[in-house]
Design brief:
- Helices cover about 60% and strands about 10% of the residues.
- It is of the alpha+beta class and about 425 residues long.
- The chain has a five-stranded mixed beta barrel.
C-alpha cells in the first residue's frame, strides 16, 4: 500500500511530513464548526485504518489548528479583580528579580498568571517550591499585546500582584517527594563555593535561580546556555542512572519503570519544553521495545513532536521547544553523513546539533557564536558525569552535611 511498509506501518518520511503538518496547523490556529472538527478526526482515523497517509496528515493538521485556536481562546485576558485569601498553586520555583521582587508562574482557579510579590509576601513566597500552594491576597490584572504574546507558550494571560501570603500547603505526593529531593540536594550544595552553586543547580536540576548576569553572558557567548538548564540530554543521563533498577525485570517491568522515571524526572525538573520532547521520545522508544518494534530515530522524533504539539499546541511558539527539536533533527540527520566522511563521532554530533539549532537561533537571535563548536566538544562530555554525580551523590551530601565538602570535591573539579 502506498505510504506504508510491508507490515502496514506508515513510512518514516510520511511521519515526518505529518509532524510538520501538525506544527503548521498549530502555528496557523483557526477554529471551525464542530462538524468539520469531527470530519478531521474521521479523516485521521481513516488515514490509519485505510492506510491513507494524506488523509492522516490533513486530519491531524486541522485538529492541531482547532486545538491551538481554542488554546488561544483560553488566554483571553480576564477582567481586573481583587484576590482575597485565595489559594494559588506555584507552577515554577519563586525567583528573585532586580529591585527586590519575587516572581513565579502560578495557577489561580483555571488560569495561569505571572505573580510578583515584595516585602513580607515575597519573603514568604521565596521559601516555597513549584507544586506547593500559597494563600494570597492581591490584584489580578490582564496582560495584553506583546506581554501576552511573549508569555503565551506558558499559558499566561494575567499578572497577579501579591500583597499578602497568609497560608501555605505542600504539593501532591509526587511533588512533595521531588521538592524534598531538591531541598536535600541544595543543602549539600552549600559546601560548594557560592559562585558555583547556581551553575550546579542549573546543570543537575534545571534550577537557574541565582545565576549571575556575568555567568549567563559567558555561557551564552560560548554557545553553552543549554548546559545551564535541564535539557533533553539530562533525560538520557537520568535513565542511565536508573538503568540498574530498570533492567532488573522483564519487558513490562522495564516499560513501567521507564515511565515512572520519566514522570519523576519531569516533576523534579519542572517539565521544561526540551525535557518534554526528550521524555516523549523516551516513552515512544520504550513502547516500541515493549512490542518488539524498535523505532528509528527520525520517526521517534517526529512521533514525539507530534504528540507534544497535539497535547499542547502553544509549544510551537516556545523557543526552547523549537531549539530542542531542531538540534535533535540535526543530530539524527547530519551525524551519519558526517561520520561517513570520517568525522569523529563526538565532533560530528556537535557539528550536527549546532547546525540544526542554527535554523532556530539565527532567525530568533540573529547569530550563532562561532566558538560554540569547540566549546561544546570540550564541555558536553564533562556535563554528563557532573549531572549523574549530582543526581546520585548530591542527596548524600545533603543528608551527611559534615562530609558534603568531601563528596562535592569531584563537583568542584
Amino acid at each position: 500500500m502506498p505510504g506504508f511498509d510491508s507490515e502496514g506501518v506508515l513510512l518514516d518520511w510520511h511521519i515526518v511530513v505529518t509532524a510538520g503538518a501538525v506544527a503548521a496547523g498549530a502555528l496557523f490556529a483557526r477554529d471551525v464548526a464542530a462538524v468539520w472538527f469531527v470530519a478531521a478526526a474521521a479523516a485521521a482515523f481513516v488515514g490509519v485504518a485505510a492506510r491513507r497517509p494524506f488523509a492522516l496528515m490533513v486530519g491531524l493538521a486541522v485538529i492541531s489548528s482547532v486545538l491551538a485556536a481554542r488554546a488561544w481562546d483560553g488566554l483571553r485576558p480576564p477582567p481586573a479583580a481583587v484576590v482575597n485569601n485565595q489559594w494559588v498553586t506555584l507552577l515554577t520555583d519563586p525567583t528573585p528579580f532586580p529591585g527586590g521582587s519575587i516572581g513565579a508562574d502560578v495557577r489561580i482557579g483555571h488560569r495561569h498568571a505571572s505573580a510578583f510579590a515584595r516585602g513580607p509576601a515575597g519573603s514568604a513566597m521565596i521559601s516555597r517550591l513549584a507544586g506547593e500552594h500559597i494563600r494570597v491576597g492581591g490584584v489580578l490584572r490582564p496582560l495584553t499585546g506583546v506581554q501576552r504574546d511573549r508569555l503565551a507558550p506558558r499559558h499566561i494571560a494575567a499578572r497577579l500582584s501579591i500583597n499578602t501570603v497568609t497560608g501555605v500547603r505542600n504539593a501532591n505526593f509526587l511533588g512533595t517527594i521531588a521538592n524534598a529531593y531538591r531541598r536535600v540536594v541544595a543543602t549539600g550544595a552549600r559546601a560548594l563555593p557560592e559562585r558555583l552553586r547556581p551553575l550546579f543547580g542549573g546543570m543537575v536540576l534545571g534550577d537557574d535561580r541565582g545565576q549571575s548576569t556575568e555567568l549567563q553572558d559567558a555561557f551564552r557567548a560560548a554557545g553553552l546556555t543549554h548546559l545551564m538548564v535541564v535539557s533533553g540530554q539530562n533525560v538520557a543521563f537520568a535513565l542511565l542512572v536508573a538503568s540498574p533498577l530498570i533492567r532488573r525485570g522483564r519487558l513490562v517491568w522495564r516499560f513501567g519503570m521507564t515511565l515512572l522515571v520519566l514522570v519523576g524526572f519531569g516533576v523534579l525538573t519542572r517539565w521544561e519544553p526540551s525535557v518534554l520532547r526528550a521524555e516523549a521520545m523516551a516513552a515512544v522508544a520504550a513502547a516500541g521495545a515493549l512490542v518488539g518494534r524498535p523505532v528509528p530515530a527520525l520517526r521517534l522524533l517526529a512521533l514525539a513532536a507530534t504528540g507534544c504539539v497535539l497535547v499542547d499546541p502553544l509549544l510551537v511558539h516556545s523557543v526552547g521547544f523549537r531549539l530542542s527539536v531542531a538540534a535533535v533533527t540535526g543530530l539524527v540527520v547530519l551525524t551519519p553523513v558526517l561520520q561517513r566522511r570520517r568525522v569523529p563521532m563526538l565532533l560530528a554530533a556537535s557539528i550536527a546539533a549546532q547546525l540544526g539549532a542554527a535554523v532556530v537561533l539565527v532567525p530568533t537571535f540573529g547569530t550563532v557564536p562561532l566558538v560554540s563548536l569547540p566549546a561544546n566538544v570540550l564541555a558536553v562530555p564533562l556535563a554528563g558525569p557532573l549531572m549523574m554525580w549530582g543526581l546520585t551523590a548530591g542527596p548524600v551530601a545533603g543528608l551527611i552535611a559534615p562530609l558534603a565538602g568531601v563528596i562535592h570535591l569531584p563537583t568542584q573539579v
